[in-house]
Write a structure and sequence with these properties.
Epimerase_deHydtase; 12% strand; two-stranded parallel ribbon; transmembrane; membrane; 466 residues; 7-stranded parallel β-sheet; 14 helices; UDP-glucuronate 4-epimerase activity; disordered C terminus; alpha/beta
């Protein structure tokens, strides 16, 4: 009988299986080695990026109290620890400035007090009998000498302004220990749209970190918690094309970093209102102008250039249409700020950051003039008031954060606290130019004056309001 051939099928299967296992193991080893290599490469790349970031942008990685763009206080230590503030005499001065002169008066901490809007609001509050303490870091975004002049003006009316940064949480806490402020008017911010492309960190430090610093102290340390009114901006409307701009319009398409930080501020305000019961009102300002204004604003810089014979740059849209702004006179904005303070309800949170007692007030309002004007028309008014023609360079609006137009719908502010802007651009610019030539001692080809009847009416109005 012939023997059967050996069965090799099992051994072949075993060999194929062993070969398969060998390939799997080899593949797994290769994948593991690749993963380790990829992880190390990623880690190395991250370390290189961090190094480059530290090299070029060190301020963002410092503590928020350390960084203050162009501030005279670059030291991260609180001014309390330096001995500059906090003694008995200092506390007495703070209490004196914060004390209202009328029985139902407010006690208001004004941040950004020697800024343009801050100065006017502080004066208006003090004149009507409210207590006011100011806070400002006197940074060099524009001429600090102008800020010192505003400080002197406030001091002459009994308003104490502390030179400090809003990121100094220890100092803020001390202020609320010394004075139970009923309200905070938070106007401190890094302003300007175009400057954000050159110094973006300053916007994060002031407009985001600074806002959080204030909200933290107000929510968790102040007793009682104050009601807060703060400056947002019409810039939050960004690329919105609906007009006039309404508080219900979308604000999720900012055209500049400045606008983005203000939009972030509104989101942060919602958070602190929701969690801690802070009463918060945001005000969206529309191109504020007037005496004691900001030198970086067009009406101010154009005045200086026209008088000195230097050219000015006017923007137009690619299709040739004019750039327009809803210019709002400072006195109208001040009335809006005071109206918001007057109608702000008490916060509902518990000092120390405990559970709030109930929903707290959260509001946002436009404060504008409701009448957009082409920037070229503003220049024509200045030419008439100054008696001198401007040398104009007209160029297409660059993509640097500026928007083609702004137009405020103020019906909500009108309904809630009677906001009604009354100053047209020609009247407001006349008052600005009069202040400008007096403050800087400038000789103009044309005397800027009202007629006697207008002067008498204004004096009578001032006397009546006093």
């Amino acid at each position: 009988m012939m023997a059967s051939p050996p069965d090799t099928s099992k051994s072949s299967k075993l060999e194929r299986y062993n070969s398969y296992l060998l390939r799997r193991v080899s593949s797994a080893k290769l994948i593991a080695a690749s993963s380790h290599l990829l992880f190390r490469a990623t880690l190395l790349a991250a370390l290189i990026l961090i190094f480059l970031f530290l090299l070029h942008y060190p301020p963002l990685l410092l503590s928020s109290s350390h960084y203050s763009s162009s501030s005279s206080h670059s030291n991260h230590r609180s001014l309390l620890s330096s001995g500059s503030y906090g003694g008995g005499n200092w506390e007495r001065d703070v209490r004196r400035s914060a004390a209202p002169r009328r029985s139902d008066g407010l006690s208001v901490l004004v941040t950004g007090a020697v800024g343009f809007v801050g100065t006017h609001c502080s004066l208006a509050l003090k004149r009507r009998g409210d207590g006011v303490v100011g806070l400002d870091n006197f940074n060099a975004y524009y001429d600090p000498a102008l800020k010192r002049s505003r400080q002197a003006l406030l001091s002459s009316h009994g308003v104490l302004v502390l030179e400090a940064d809003i990121n100094d949480g220890a100092l803020l806490a001390k202020l609320f220990d010394v004075v139970p402020f009923s309200h905070v008017l938070h106007l401190a911010a890094q302003a300007g749209v175009r400057y954000a492309t050159r110094n973006p960190q300053s916007y994060v430090a002031s407009n985001v970190a600074g806002l959080v610093s204030l909200f933290e102290v107000a929510a968790k340390h102040a007793d009682p918690q104050p009601a807060i009114v703060w400056a947002s901006s019409s810039s939050v409307y960004g690329l919105n094309t609906e007009a006039p701009f309404s508080e219900s319009h979308r604000t999720d398409r900012p055209a500049s970093l400045y606008a983005a930080t203000k939009k972030a501020g509104e989101a942060i305000a919602h958070t602190y209102n929701h969690i801690y019961g802070l009463s918060i009102t945001g005000l969206r300002f529309f191109t504020v102008y007037g005496p004691w204004g900001r030198p970086d604003m067009a009406y101010f810089s154009f005045t200086k250039s026209i008088l000195s014979g230097k050219p000015i740059t006017l923007f137009r849209m690619p299709d040739g249409t004019a750039v327009q702004r809803d210019f709002t006179y400072i006195d109208d904005v001040v009335k809006g700020c005071l109206g918001a303070l007057n109608t702000a309800k008490k916060s509902t949170g518990v000092p120390g950051g405990g559970k709030k007692r109930g929903p707290a007030q959260l509001r946002v309002y436009n404060l504008g003039n409701t009448s957009p004007v082409p920037v070229a028309e503003m220049v024509s008014i200045l030419e008439h008031l100054l008696g001198k023609k401007a040398k104009k360079n007209v160029v297409t609006l660059p993509q640097n954060g500026d928007v083609p137009f702004t137009h405020a719908n103020v019906s909500l502010a009108k309904k809630d606290f009677g906001y009604r802007p009354t100053t047209d651009l020609a009247t407001g610019l006349r008052k600005f130019v009069k202040w400008y030539v007096e403050y800087y001692g400038v000789q103009t080809p044309k005397v800027v004056n009202k007629d006697a009847g207008e002067e008498e009416k204004e004096e009578e109005g001032a006397a009546a309001s006093a």
